[in-house]
Amino acid sequence: MASNSKKIAGSIAGLITALVLIMLLERLSGTLYPPPAATRQPTIEELELFIASAPFGAVALLLLSYLTGAFAGGFVGTLLARPSWVPALVVGLFLTMGSVVNLLMVKHPAGYWAMLAIYLPGALAGAKLAMKKPAPVEQM
Fold first, then answer.
1. Which residues contact 125 (CB under 8 A, 6 or more apart)?
2. With b meaning 16 or more CB within 10 Å and e meaning fewer, what string describes 79-90?
């Protein structure tokens, strides 16, 4: 059984891994599908209009970033806290809660709400793969 400190460290490392990957892939999406050039910070209404008119490729890349981040976060967190799945659950739930807040703050098309279903299964799939990896032999 993994100690609480391993679970906490795994959860933190998993969250950091997930967030960094999501940010990197979202940056790639912004490069491939740039928003209209602006000389100032867009208003919430302008942001909502941009989100509603996003091309399919941008939305697909966004979904891929969520899945990749959740999977990698669940994998890294579980790898550090084996045999516990707790870090993967923490990663999946925190990513879901963060997205709910984002969806409530800025109006999104209804399909974006369906993306919430990707975080927990993605993190648990990463955890499942981490559990298959042989554990290192601990030396005393």
1. 71, 74
2. bbbbebbbbbbb
Please enumerate in sequence order all residues whose Cβ is within 8 A of that of 86, keeping only pairs 6 or more positions apart, or say none: 2, 7, 10, 11
pLDDT digits (tens, 9 = 90+) for 68-123: 999 999 999 999 998 889 999 999 999 999 999 999 998 888 888 999 999 999 99
Global pTM reads 0.86
Quick one: angle between helices 119-132 and 56-81, nearest 10? 40
**Residue 64, both tokens:** 């891929």
First to last CA, the chain: 18
What residue spans define the domains of the chain?
Answer: 4-35+42-132
Amino acid identity of residue 140, one-letter, is M
